[in-house]
């Protein structure tokens, strides 16, 4: 089941922290997926809770994306093996960084008009 979109278009991340994000004049508590179709709530709350099934909405869009940015929380962490393999299998580049760096990078690439998506784990 696909989560409900909070905003039906891609917009920059205005702020992050306190367990959530602010974007498009809205706020969301928890992790988010930033897809070309909009910004969606996302279940994983830590890198340990992430698996390839959680990335399925991104994997389904692989042919339309240049790559995906994974924000791993307050610190950089290695993506789980099954996530790396799932991305490789569909030819989707995966760039992993802490959530703050991921949000900033997402904003820059979005402003450049790049075909990107981001999976951002919320930080406190």
UniProtKB/TrEMBL annotation:
Q: Name one Pfam family in it.
A: DUF498
- What CDD domains does this protein's entry cite? Mth938-like
**From which domain of life does this come?**
Bacteria
Signal sequence segment: none
List, alphabetically, the Gene3D superfamilies matched: MTH938-like
Q: What is this protein called?
A: Membrane protein
